[in-house]
Amino acid sequence: MSDRLDEVPEMENMDDTISPKRINVPGKDLTMKNPDMQYNVMMAEISKTLGIGLNSVRKIISEYKTTGSVKSPNKKRSKKCLFEKIDDLDRNALRQKEEMQRFNREGRLACLASKNYIYDIRKYREEGRTVYYLDETWVNAGDCVEKLWVDKTIQSKHDAFNRGLTTDATNPTGTGKRLIVLHIGSHKGFLEGRLLCFLSKKNSGDYHDEMNGDHFHEWFQSIIPRLEQNSVIVMDNAPYHSVKTEKIPTSSSKKDDILL
């Protein structure tokens, strides 16, 4: 019995002792030294002592009051990609390698397409089929040649004036109006009466902007009856050469338009 009574004071002394962790708590240390300290001042002192932001201190205390515990922030470490691990010299080398591979890949595809085109044209010609080529271009009203034929029998300007001739051609001051030209032809020459030429109305650097699917479709229908039987037409991949009759539905399309 006496042994148990001797152990009781020791247990009470153990409860009264403060662990090292409790002594190092900034909030309790401040309240023990200055019980009348204001809340905002205490938050600022804790932030200064711990070396963290004031908002972080307030957020942690608010979380503790709400949940009764504080969770440690689980920050995911972002893995560095290959470009971040190497220097600029190696990065440039990798970029050049990638561009070279893309260039070789596109070059192989272009060569393959050219081979297929030549093979098809050769096959059509062996079959005796007429191959027509169509394309668009433009010409300015002010375009002129740099060299002209000269009549060396003219001795002077007075001689040319007497014959009703001029001594030189006057170049225009500007390019003038632009004409859009569309035509089709084969090894036999251009298709007669199927020249499409009109005045440009758009001030654009690309003459393809003047054409559209409706104009090309109307002109194309007019040339089909004039072509030879079982013939072949070669054209490029201009946008107005292949126009979709029905638009692909989108998220903003109406139900009636989709069902139609």
Automatic annotation (TrEMBL):
* Name recorded for this polypeptide: Tc1-like transposase DDE domain-containing protein
InterPro entries from the entry? RNaseH_sf, WH-like_DNA-bd_sf
Q: Name one GO molecular function term.
A: nucleic acid binding
Question: Organism's domain of life?
Answer: Eukaryota
Known PANTHER family for this protein?
A: DUF4371 DOMAIN-CONTAINING PROTEIN, PROTEIN CBG22215
Q: Record the organism.
A: Acyrthosiphon pisum (Pea aphid)
